[in-house]
Every structure is written in structure tokens, then in C-alpha cells.
């Protein structure tokens, strides 16, 4: 398979912090011309069989997926797993453990928001939650837009919920080594998600992330994503080559009203890179 393939290997459903059901995403991907699709909900594989069944019914080739929250040297980073077996017991147990602290964290976030004059945010966020084990900052963001505190969810993250702002609660996610191992041992390929999004405290911190990710068996990096500019995509294309990693492409679509980038509406992957789907040909479900 070639680099020029409309693959979209990163998006979210109501099973995590997206607003569309897995079936609706499959239909939208197909309508937008996606040729290879993966649903990658945060810390959860509960939507995988629905997504695969919907994709199969539409004749849309599918890779099982997940996006795991990781704490690496004090920073939250995301690792996408593609081509995993969603029924793998170790993976499921690891994910259950990773999402376990979310409710307590959400209650603390709500307490901080109440202290700055925004009451009822826990209950408010819950109205947007499709999966009770997966309360996300995104659900708080939707509530703060609903109540008129902010104009859109991006403003919420600028003013609240991020490091140093009210509503931010430090949280310890999975370790990088565990996340990569769960993915690999479930038959998948680990992909370092949207690398330009991380506020590394120093250039050596980013190099350490790439080296350790690779050392643990990580095999790919997201180069083309909805959260990269053209210049960032170019920078991480170079990093992929430097570190000998394959390259992935995914919109990170969450919602028609919120996401800048729709399913399948991405620039092409640089033809000189090894596309991650070349490593996953045997894992594609037709
Ligand atoms: P959580 O896993 O609960 O910490 O929430 C992380 C999610 O918040 C991400 O997956 C995004 O969907 C969303 N998010 C994080 N930062 C931003 C931002 N600056 N603008 C919009 N959404 C964001
Ligand atoms: Mn999200
Ligand atoms: Mn992410
Ligand atoms: Mn994502």
C-alpha cells in the first residue's frame, strides 16, 4: 500500500469524548472518502466492535484502535495503538486501570471551578458523558460553553482546565513502557500521537520521549494530524526519518461543531515516509 491513501487513523466517539456514535463516525468517514479507518477512543475499547461492524457493513477497511493517556517525565502524552486485539485481557485491564481515577479527578476539577464562581460543573459535565468511566476535560469544556462562561471549547482550555489555570488537576496516567507493551502484546503498533502538542520543558525532553518510546518498542509517530500545521507536519516527518519510525495520519475528529479537521480531510502523508499501515496490512479488517 502507498503513502497516498486516505487513511484516517485517529478519532473519538461517545465512548470517550466525541459527540458521534461509532456508527455515525463510520458513515461520516465513508462519505468523506476515507479508505482506511480507525476509531481511537481515549483509554477505552468499548466502541471497537461497533465501529468494526459498521465499517464492514459499509465496505470500509478498518483497524482496531485506542488512544492511551500516558505520564512521561511530568507531562501527559498520548499513545495511539493501531491493529490491536480489542479483546486482549492485559490491554483491557491496563485501560481500566488508566481510566480508573477520572471520576475523582473530575470532582476535584469541579471544586476548583466552584471556587472561581462556576458551580455545578461536575453534574454539568456529566450530562455530556456517554461513558460514566470516561469523564474528560472535554465534557467540562462543553458545559462551560453551554453556560456562556466561554464562547467555544478552545477558549475553555485557554482559560481553564490546563496547567496553571483553575480546574486543572494533576493526574498520573499509564507509564510509557506499559502503554507501548499493552499495545504490542495485543498485536498492535504503538504510535506517538500529535507530538507538536506537548509543551516540553526542554529540547532534550522531546528527544528523551522519542528515544524511550522507540526503546520500549514504539514503531510510529503521527505526522499528519488535525492538530499539526503544515510546518509541524514537516518537522515531524523529519523526526520520523531521523528515528526510523513509520508515519501515521489522523484527524483527531471529536465533533462536527468543535473539530477544525473533519474525518478524511487531511493533507497527504509525505511519500518518502513509511506509512504505518504498511506495518499493519495483516491487521486490517475488510
Ligand atoms: P482528558 O483526557 O480528560 O485530560 O482530556 C483531554 C482532551 O481534551 C483531549 O483529548 C482533547 O479532546 C481535549 N483538549 C485538550 N486540550 C485542548 C485544547 N487546547 N482545545 C480543545 N480541546 C482540547
Ligand atoms: Mn479528546
Ligand atoms: Mn490526544
Ligand atoms: Mn485524540
From TrEMBL:
GO terms for molecular function: 3',5'-nucleotide bisphosphate phosphatase activity; 5'-3' DNA exonuclease activity; 5'-3' RNA exonuclease activity. Keywords: Hydrolase. The keyword Ribonucleoprotein does not apply. Its EC number is 3.1.3.97. It comes from the Bacteria. It is an enzyme of class 3 (hydrolase). Residues 7-72 form the Polymerase/histidinol phosphatase N-terminal domain. NCBIfam families: nside_bi_sphtase. This is 3',5'-nucleoside bisphosphate phosphatase.
